[in-house]
Write a structure and sequence with these properties.
two-stranded antiparallel sheet, seven-stranded antiparallel sheet
C-alpha cells in the first residue's frame, strides 16, 4: 500500500503569482486515504508557460547545456497545472534539485513513459490525435529513431496549434513551423491525489 502524504507548500519562487502549488511528501502510513481525481488546471499551466517560456525560473536548473531544457520546462508547466509530483524513487516524476530529480522530469521518452503509465499520485496522460489537444497538454516531436522535443500547447484554432518551448525558446509559435517526422500528443484528463 502506498504511503500517505501531506501537502507542503513550495517557496514563492516556485509558484505562479496567486497560485498555491504544492508538493506531495511521504508521511507516516495512514491507510484511511484513497486516491481520487481532481481537475488538471490548464489555466495555471498556460499562465506558467507564458511567464517562463522566454526566461528561466531560478527555482529549477537550466538543462540547455546538458542535452536540452525542453522537457524540464514541460514538466514545470505540467506541475503548475497539477500542483503535485510523484515522489516514487526511480519511477516517479519529481524535481527537488539538480541532484534530486527523476529521469522523467527532464527526459523526453521518460516523461512520456511516466505520464502514459502513471496509476499513482500525480498527473497522467492519454494519447490523443492532434485535433483533440487542449491548452496545457504536451506535444512531443520525433524523427525515424526517437522522440526528441517536448512542447506545451497554448492554444489552437481550426488550422493551427500554438505552442511554447525551451531549448529553442518559443512562445505562441505555430506547430506547423517545426520540422518533424512524427508527433505524439499527451492529453492530461485529470490529476490523482490522496483525499
Amino acid at each position: 500500500m502506498p504511503a500517505s502524504v501531506v501537502f507542503k507548500s513550495l517557496p514563492p519562487s516556485c509558484q505562479n503569482p496567486g497560485s498555491r502549488h504544492r508538493i506531495w511528501q511521504p508521511m507516516n502510513d495512514r491507510r484511511d486515504h484513497a486516491l481520487i481525481e481532481r481537475p488538471y488546471r490548464r489555466d495555471r499551466a498556460v499562465a506558467y508557460t507564458e511567464r517562463w517560456a522566454l526566461g528561466r525560473n531560478p527555482a529549477y536548473a537550466d538543462f540547455s547545456t546538458l542535452g536540452g531544457d525542453c522537457t524540464n520546462f514541460a514538466s514545470q508547466c505540467v506541475f503548475a497545472g497539477s500542483g503535485v509530483m510523484n515522489p516514487t524513487p526511480e519511477t516517479g516524476w519529481y524535481y527537488y534539485s539538480l541532484q534530486s530529480r527523476s529521469a522523467s522530469w527532464t527526459g523526453v521518452e521518460f516523461f512520456a513513459d511516466f505520464m502514459l503509465r502513471n496509476r499513482g499520485i500525480g498527473p497522467y496522460a492519454v494519447l490523443v490525435p492532434l485535433s483533440q489537444v487542449k491548452p496545457g497538454d504536451v506535444i512531443q516531436l520525433g524523427n525515424a529513431e526517437r522522440f526528441y522535443h517536448s512542447l506545451i500547447v497554448l492554444g489552437k484554432n481550426s488550422y493551427e496549434v500554438y505552442v511554447a518551448a525551451h531549448s529553442q525558446d518559443a512562445l505562441w509559435r505555430e506547430l506547423s513551423s517545426y520540422s518533424y517526422a512524427h508527433l505524439r500528443c499527451l492529453h492530461f484528463p485529470a490529476v490523482r491525489v490522496y483525499e
